[in-house]
Amino acid sequence: MARPHRLSLAGCGLALLLAGCGDTPLADALRGPVGPMQSAAASEPSGPVLLVSGARRPFRFTLLQHAGGQRLWRAEGGAALSTQGARITATAGLGAGLAATRLEGADPLEDPRALPGREEVRSVRSIDLQGATRSPQDLRFGVQLACRMTVAEEGAWLVLTERCSGDDIDFTNRFWAEAATGAVRRSEQWVGDATLTVEAYGL
After folding, report:
1. What does the pLDDT read at residue 44?
2. Domains of the chain with CATH codes
3. pLDDT of residue 109
């Protein structure tokens, strides 16, 4: 059996950060203002940026730290994201949502260029969900998801559609990757109570 690939942040999870982790880089990510989000047409980010909509308001996330493909992002107002490659694996400051993600085996998003010609790619993962208050009593651990990913070639883009289902959960994610490079530039991702639209720049 493949060893589950943990996509959650090491140490204290985002869901429990403010409650019990004290002064850490993650805690710093949830403090202090960051400039307001601007449209992509109105600004050209000088570094890695995620423009995110679909939450209670738009956010502009800037990169705080990274290790390999795992990245930690922050935005104004105490919002933070953890990502592995193009996938959101945990959220904080956005209300109820993902506290952690664990994938069994390789993530199909690691190389979208390998997907054309395959009927579908199946994957299994488990997630932890947090309530809006981040109270431990509101956490759901080890929610199992079975996912199927298909790909369609649309000109210079690969459009990846991922359908996942589990206990009382059923959602669809979409990712737009450059056919030439495999880089995911846009996505629509379910994170619990919302589906976020993410535009990536500078990656």
Report:
1. 55
2. 4-38+48-201 (2.40.360.10)
3. 93
